[in-house]
Specification:
Layout lengths: L1 H20 L10 H17 L10 H13 L7 H13 L11 E3 L2 E3 L1 E4 L11 E6 L9 H8 L8 E6 L12 H18 L6 E6 L1 H12 L6 E5 L30 E6 L8 H16 L6 E6 L12 H7 L10 E5 L17 E2 L2 E3 L7 E7 L2 E7 L6 E5 L10 E5 L2 E6 L5 H11 L8 E4 L1
Parallel strand pairs: 4-5, 4-6, 6-7, 8-9, 14-16
Antiparallel strand pairs: 1-2, 3-5, 10-13, 11-12, 12-15, 13-14, 15-18, 16-17
């Protein structure tokens, strides 16, 4: 009797599984003509997109392409089809990751090492760890970073990328070419292996710690976490932080949704601990204000010089690397950094996009607090007029079938139901090169 009943359950399960496997796929929302038009325009767009972050768009061409994209009507419900289509087209254009071929830039050649690359079919199961070497004027080698940050790659299914600073100067990763180099390598890794964009980490020691703190603070939406050991956060070539004027703004408030683990030493003479200790106090204040974030594990180790404390960075690996990025946070804190004070140099990228917000012309120390609650989007802006902003939306952020209300500094800026926008999808994919963050509609005010 029991055997008969068991066989019945087994048969039902098998038949149920077979029925599920044979269930018809959802009918496509895009008609053939619209799909062809999207493919053609997206191909033209990504062919025109600069091959690396060292280069700039032809602004006139970009504007013309996005204007055409805005004119193309996209039916509601098509986002699920469009995201993989657009990502496939984007991946077809641009250089692939190959550690034997340095990148060309107007500053010189950018060499890098690649460790633990996945097979082409396993790429989506892998994340990425970018390790930045230390050094300074005339000193620094990618081999140091590879030695520090390669141990956890296999266990945590991570691709390791270790760039060599194009110019060995103080704080090389905070220069225009240093930052653009790292951003380009991230694009190339995603293009080559279709990596999991929710598992990208940045790490470094000394100058590499400084660089990884800056990258996490300027581009938090890229990262699942950061390990910026024994660096500094100065607004100039200073070794003491007496007040906020000597501390680099535009970083600490922005890591609300980026877990961080790092240390400094109380007697570190190479990278004195003052700025990191000051940052720790600021983080505590922000954490008290916003209990949904600022998950930071920081220690100033008494008596430690310029070295990892015992057990590190192994403890950092176990604390941080199992985590995933918070891809669609509904709360944002953004402090802008415009003027590039240190290290000196030109062509530093101006950050205009922050998660699902864009500011056309951000101002120095502009601070934005934003929250999505249901269908209501509240944005509070300081040191900037509440105009010249864009809110990107998607099904992960709001119910796209219902109206939304956007308030800025208490003033209603928009009320309605934004339609799907091919331009929004192309722009968000262009800026972040991230298959998980293709946002499909926008509100400008």
């Amino acid at each position: 009797m029991k055997r008969t009943a068991s066989m019945g359950v087994l048969t039902a399960c098998l038949l149920g599984g077979l029925a599920a496997s044979q269930a018809p796929k959802a009918a496509p929302v895009l008609d053939a003509a619209t799909r062809k038009a999207v493919e053609s325009l997206a191909t033209e767009f990504f062919k025109a997109r600069p091959a690396t972050r060292f280069e700039e768009w032809d602004s006139q061409k970009r504007t013309e392409l996005l204007k055409r994209a805005d004119a193309l009507s996209i039916p509601e419900g098509a986002t699920r089809e469009l995201r993989p289509l657009l990502w496939k087209i984007a991946r077809a254009h641009g250089p692939l990751l190959d550690g034997t071929k340095p990148l060309e830039s107007r500053w010189g050649k950018g060499a890098y090492d690649v460790v633990n690359p996945p097979s082409k079919t396993a790429g989506s199961q892998f994340g990425c760890l970018i390790g930045l070497h230390g050094g300074g004027e005339g000193a620094g080698d990618k081999g140091e970073a590879k030695g520090n940050w390669s141990t956890p790659l296999t266990k945590h299914k991570l691709l390791g990328i270790y760039p060599q600073a194009i110019r060995l100067v103080h704080d090389a990763w905070n220069t225009a070419e240093g930052e653009r180099f790292v951003l380009t390598l991230m694009d190339m890794a995603k293009r080559t292996y279709d990596l999991d964009p929710d598992r990208i980490f940045v790490a470094g020691f000394s100058m590499g710690g400084t660089g990884s703190w800056y990258l996490a603070g300027r581009y938090p939406q890229f990262f699942a976490g950061a390990m910026p050991f024994h660096g500094v956060i100065f607004a100039a070539d200073k070794y003491k932080v007496a007040d906020e004027k000597e501390f680099q703004h535009g970083l600490v408030p922005n890591v609300r949704h980026v877990p961080m683990y790092y240390t400094t030493g109380s007697v570190d003479a190479n990278c004195p601990p003052a700025s990191y200790v000051f940052a720790g106090k600021l983080l505590e204040k922000w954490r008290a204000k916003h209990t949904d974030g600022y998950d930071v594990n920081f220690r100033c180790v008494d008596g430690l010089a310029h070295a990892f404390p015992p057990g590190e960075p192994g403890k950092a690996f176990e604390w941080l690397l199992p985590r995933k990025r918070k891809t669609f946070p509904k709360t944002l804190t953004w402090e802008a950094q415009i003027e590039h004070v240190w290290p000196p140099g030109a062509d530093w990228p101006l950050v205009k996009d922050f998660y699902w917000l864009r500011c056309t012309e951000p101002t120095e120390k502009m601070c934005v607090e934003a929250v999505i609650e249901g269908q209501n989007i509240q944005i509070d802006v300081q040191r900037h007029a509440p105009t010249g902003f864009r809110v990107y939306l998607s099904p992960e952020l709001v119910d796209v079938a219902k109206p939304v209300t956007v308030l800025a500094n208490g003033e209603k800026k928009y009320e309605g139901t934004p339609a799907p926008s091919l331009a929004a999808m192309l722009e968000s994919l262009d800026v972040w090169y991230d298959r998980s963050r293709i946002l499909d509609r926008k509100v400008d005010f």
